[in-house]
Amino acid sequence: MDYLKFDKAQLVNTEYSLKKEYIRTNRAGSFASSTIINCNTRKYHGLLICPIDHFGGDNHVLLSSLDETIIQHDAPFNLGIHKFPGEYSPKGNKYVREYIMDPTPTIIYRVGGVILRKELLLVEKEQRVLVRYTLLEANSPTTLRLQPFLAFRNIHSLTKANLDANTRSEDVDNGVKIRLYQDFPYLYMQTSVESEFVHVPDWYYNVEYKEEKKRGYDCHEDLFVPGYFEMNIKKGESIVFSAGTKEISPNAISKQFTSEIKKRVNRDSFENCLENSAVQFFSINGKGTGIINGFPWFSTSERNTYLSLPGLTLARGDQKTFLDVFNTVFKRVCNRFSMDPAINGGRFSVDVPLWSFWTLQKYIEAGADRKEIWKKHSKKIKEILQYYKHGSNLAISMHENGMLWITEQGVTWMNIKHHGLCLNRRMGYVVEINALWYNAICFALEMAGEAKDKEFATEWSGVKENLKESFIETFCDESKTYLADYVDDTHKSWAVRPNQLFAVSLPYSCLSDDQKKGVLDVIEKELLTPRGLRTLSPKNHEYVGVIAGNEEERNRAFHNGSVFPWLIGHFAEAYLKLYKLGGETKIQRWLAVFEDSLLEHGVGTVSEIYSGNPPHKPNEATSYALSVAEVIRVNKMFNESSLK
């Protein structure tokens, strides 16, 4: 019985099927993504999207889509589907009878007496996609025609018909190779059986991407079709199409599909869906092991790496990958203090180095030796703290009260700009920055104490006590049960936002238990939803409850009401710390409701954000590393708590 189920009667309905997207990745950095009926609705969709070294490792769409046509008695039935202005053509969705996710994305088509199964997978360590077609039923001789649509462009761009494109293809065993532009690799398209490639080069104009259109972006693209493959197929026979950046022996194509499909993790439970999704974010290259922020358009970032790493690795019992990733990113952490535009664009993400302390704390909770961590990382830990203490750049400085002060050059996770205008200005004393600062100092002092580093303890113990007192004075008020979001020279913001949560969830907190409970009560009443925490209370006049409209409107909604699933991890952690076993029931209920999200947007995974207003529709990235990581972490917290 399939865990991820789709309404078979609704699959032909584009309003139903175009909202559901799949994502498949491999360890070579490639991915394939589209809607479940293979109609591309984003410029980020494609069957083979891979990093290209010559272009700085940026992802590029090589093979956009592959249309299949069934031919019987000289009558063709095209199973493909594309959106053009005002119409869908062809309308292959009308032949879709079933969509299956396990062990790999699979569509069952029915055309009269013909039943055809199509399965897609990426080869684990190659830039290659394989598509297997199996003729399950047929009463007459049947021909299969495959028509590739090529893009050869950066995922953030769109291509247009042009005279610079090299539209010539060269024959290889059971296929052709083609390279539209210099510096791209050749794309080798081959079949597992002998086939005829008919050279009919042509451009298909104005393919429309509806998701880009909704955002007000350029949404029309011209795709190049070099011709089509044609071959006979018998009932019960399977034929595999391969598209990759290296040639393959036709005899090896079917064997490779069989061996690769055995490696797949079946998504037959909530936990296995999260497991399957988690491993897709890891990328291994010459620079080390990294975490891709999300799909289909993100690359990597240090903040999201530190935040998602415990959930994606430690919560799954994978300490090796944790160390591979952490050691890769931590050696660059002090670069964050540079104001060199070539390094940080002249701005400083003030929270990023501080999150590395939290990540190490999670490693210790998973069983790492605290003394060994201090021995290995104490030099860099001290260096980071000194950078903050002495105001290493224009973005940040430590005041005499021990608090960190953020200038306009400083960037927090909530900063977002549109055409240079800051849509969510937070400067001065910022609550989560100082909560992270206090946690980092306490953590370092604890390790230094065990290592008998008296010099460090002497220097920082006074800062810790001063900071704790100043934090309470700055962010608390007797008339309120929650914390101010930020305090600058002229203003103290009492907007109810989730940033105060970290003053409760982090291992070291300035707050008493009563103060923590007050903060959690307000967050639960005004920010908690079935999909995570809102970024702003609906009671606030700046609240935006629906993510819609053009780029500016969407950006304005991003941190003014949109729901972030990853915040539920810190809320659950804080809740369990305070209420112990009494918090189990609530966490179990949150997880049960969250399970429904696996079929809403990115199938079998968790989206980046959701609208603040019910029914909390998913939006932005279809699969987001931080969302998946923290849901995994919450699930682990619940399982461990329920065993006590």
Write the layout of secondary structure elements.
Blueprint: H1 14-17, E1 21-25, E2 31-35, E3 46-51, E4 59-72, E5 75-78, E6 81-84, E7 87-91, E8 96-100, E9 106-111, E10 114-122, E11 128-137, E12 142-154, E13 169-172, E14 175-178, E15 187-191, E16 196-208, H2 210-214, E17 220-233, E18 238-244, H3 250-261, H4 270-279, E19 282-285, E20 288-291, E21 294-295, H5 302-312, H6 319-330, H7 341-344, E22 348-349, H8 352-365, H9 370-389, E23 396-398, E24 404-406, E25 410-411, E26 417-418, E27 421-422, E28 429-430, H10 431-450, H11 454-475, E29 486-487, E30 492-493, H12 502-505, H13 513-526, E31 528-529, E32 532-534, H14 551-558, E33 563-564, H15 567-579, H16 584-594, E34 609-610, E35 618-619, E36 623-624, H17 625-643
Parallel strand pairs: 22-25
Antiparallel strand pairs: 1-2, 2-3, 3-4, 4-5, 4-12, 6-7, 8-9, 9-10, 10-11, 11-18, 12-17, 13-14, 14-15, 15-18, 16-17, 19-20, 21-36, 23-24, 26-27, 28-29, 29-30, 31-32, 32-33, 34-35
Helix pairs in contact: 4-17, 5-6, 5-8, 5-17, 8-9, 8-10, 9-10, 10-11, 13-15, 15-17, 16-17
